[in-house]
Amino acid sequence: MTDFSVVIPARYASTRFPGKPLALINNKTMLEHVHDRAKESGASRIVVATDDPRIERCARDFGADVCMTSTQHQSGTTRIAEVLELRRVGANELVINVQGDEPFIPPENIRQVADNLEQFDAFAMATLCYPISQLEDLNNPNVVKVVKAMNGKALYFSRASIPFDRAGNAESNMSDFTAAGEYFRHIGIYGYRAGFVKQFAQLGDSMLEHCESLEQLRVLEYGFDIHIDLAKSPPPHGVDTPDDLAKLKL
Q1: Does some domain include residue 176?
Q2: Strand 28-29 to 24-25 pairing
Q3: Domain of 72: which CATH number?
Q4: Are 225 and 124 in contact (CB under 8 A)?
Q5: Is 58 within the bounds of a domain?
Q6: Rg (alpha carbons) of the chain, rounded to whole number
Q7: What pLDDT digit, counting tens, does each position of 79-112 carry?
């Protein structure tokens, strides 16, 4: 059985949804829901990484291990790098980044990323995707798209609809494109070895990363490979905005 840790980066100052980790879903904070999914995945260690005392108090109240970090981090991965340094985690330990806005992520998907990272050790990172079936999602910049090679290598991630449908067929018959596996949405979960997380944090900022506001593009732009697999279980959408949360409560 693959041994791995989960780190949950959680920040209060989200541009689109301030205080998001503390939003309530069925009388439980979003952060606690994410923590529960991590426990169900079989992770050997779970750490909440935050720079905000309100999130720290909340996490400690439900029994989480919390690591306070700098307020200067621009991505979850660099925040995790600080946690791994503070906790002196060994370079070969498998670490899964479960983002704090995925309250209903299937636990088996978390373990899948860890298993893939262990199996495909030539890849610097591992993540997941799932077919897009709704035209609304294809055109939504909050739904990140990915194109991949046949060997499981991620080629590019974008907020735009990629690959570009030059003939416009997807507009008229989305179901055919879904069946053919033309469009995939990226699921925001990352696996890496602790040593690579440190390396990532030391790389200079990437032009593509800033252009799309997607931290995984730093990995590709610097020439590292990301393994991507179809998620074993259909993943619910994460919560990016208050409207997303309202839909969960319907």
Answers
A1: no
A2: antiparallel
A3: 3.90.550.10
A4: yes
A5: yes
A6: 18
A7: 999 999 999 999 999 999 999 888 999 999 999 9
